[in-house]
Specification:
FAD binding, EC 1.14.13.113, 13 helices, 7-stranded mixed beta sheet, alpha/beta, urate oxidase activity, single chain, flavoprotein, globular, FAD/NAD(P)-binding domain
Length: 385
Amino acid sequence: MNIAIIGAGIGGLTAGIALKKFGHQVTIYEQAAEILAVGAAISLWSNGVKCLNYLGLTEKIQSLGGQMDSLAYIDGLNQQTMTQFSLAPLYQEVGQRAYPVARSDLQQLLMAEFGHEQIVLNKRMIQLQQYPQHVSIRFQDGDHSTADLVIGADGTHSITRLHVLGENRQRRYAGYVNWNGLIAIDEHIAPAQQWTSYVGEGKRVSLMPVAGDRFYVFFDIPLAAGLMHDPAQYGNVLQQHFSHWCVPVQRLINCLDPQHLNRVEIHDIEPFMTFYRGRVVLLGDAAHSTTPDIGQGGCQAMEDAIYLARSLQINTLGLEDALRRYQNKRNQRCKELLLRARKRCDITHMKDRQLTEHWYQTLYSEQGSHIMQGILNNILGNPLD
């Protein structure tokens, strides 16, 4: 088939690679004039890594991933370790390590694997028109194209979703702002091979190792949406919100270059079950925009991509049948994970103070099994189990 993918993010690129391996002619249209990674890094859990293994990228993703051997929660105010444990039992259970990875590194890997020459930049799709045997695509610059199938991988602000659902879906503010970036590993802040989270007051400061002897760092602060902000002041803002926190957090903030920090107001979209209409289908954030609180956003986009490509390959009763099977396989799992992330978000960021304080207390008696079971529940159910 001649397939057009709208959006050159992680989901769109993964789908393009998989579909090309099955012999389809694939073109990716990206509205940006230059592809830039959105966010500093991504938590690539074992199910996401397996999707890349399936595409033959095992050694390449290993070279980009951080060596994350353990996990710890630390009281951000007094620096007391609440829990700390090895992630080895989790990796043994699922058969694959997790790899935190810089988004730019991952995106460059996927673009190279797909082929830069088949990514058309500066092409903002503004309209789709379906016909019995093809879809017509109109772009903002006046160009037109046609495809047998259009895949909407155009993110949380998806235009393709409007076509599929026939209505706009408003984003829901999750209640917190996230700052994220990359710094050189500093073991005075956190161990080099550990996912370390400092928590307290509904706030969170996390560090994950990625390749290149770097930490992916992020700060979560419950704040109102729409506040004025100046990138030059990001460091000062973080200093104000964490002025009374422990020494490692202060050291971390002093290491930051405000010009290389990203600020994101976190949103999700109420889950829905319709992923396709005719010859147009959704994947990734276009289909299930979620908060990052369980680290499954990118992984679910990859799962979508692999299952969609496989559904088109192994089902022979026609395109509609293959798309319906993809939708019915993916929509319930994505809904469950979206709602699970929303629940975790509310607890972590003190939507209910009593629940959050209770969670902090449970961390002191946590030996690792409960947290790893939660992560395991997110990983299992993927198309490559």
